[in-house]
Amino acid sequence: MMNRRTLLSTAGALALVAGGLAGPALAADTTIRVASVTGPTHHHNVSLRWFADQIAAADVGLKIEVLDGAQLGGERDYIEGMMLGSIQMAQVSTAPLSGFIPQFDLFSLPYLIRDTDHFKNVVNGPVGEEFSALAEERGIKILAWFDNGYRNVFNKVRPINTPDDLDGLKIRVMESPLMVNTVNAMGGSATPMSYSELYTALEQGVLDGGENAAGNVLNDKFYEVSGYYSLTQHFRPPGVVAISMATWNGLDEAQQAAITEQAAALQEYEIELTGQVGAEALEELKAKGMEINEADVASFRDRMGPVYEDFKEKNGAELLEAVQNTE
Q1: Is the pLDDT of residue 27 over 70?
Q2: Full-model pTM
């Protein structure tokens, strides 16, 4: 028969095995696992491993372990898991976040972010603060914003120069109604699908193409199943690195301070790396045999009026105007 001390020790051990998320503080030398859907060589995971090294060097009893390649499911699984406390930390795109926090749909608007400086000023200013508060209300703390660069259309049929060239092509988009509306407005037939299923869908001819940043197209080898990459520059949705509030509240002050400091450095590191990766990826895609072409961006932008009006009807114009008015 267990005495009271044994019973308490056993309960404590079980709590640690479960992750210790409900307790007042995580044990020293705690491992926090950060989930990511992209492959190990993707620059997001290069950035996350850099972050892990900085946290290790801070010597506050934390270890960051990157679980890449969708080991823990898809981005929607990560978001829901962080809200519930079953996923400690993750890198996710803002598009699937909008399925849980509708305001994040703003970042899926086409031709919203003008350039890298504009992006930094948006996420580091009042707009970023507003979105951080919205996330915390749902149990998620944003630690850093990631720049994904411009997304462009790639396909296996023909170069895309104008909206007419997209006619009849089935193009994969993220699971975001706004992104669906955008690609449809651009002239294509938008098909929401998990990113992990896209390669096979292209290989089997279920889809004609997708849209993504050049680094992702290269890293995930879409050049093997599509021959054309057209610089439509229609989306530039950011991503976030976020932690479950359940995990965050279990950290002590020194651990929280270290994560906050190094997450700010991670954001700058990733934004700079995104620019480098994008430029290099275009050259490598050419070398892999993809045909790269400049699209008539104005002809696509001119079609976006209904997309913006629909967004404002559903969400109001306040946050949109805040982004547009950010210098």
Answers
A1: no
A2: 0.79
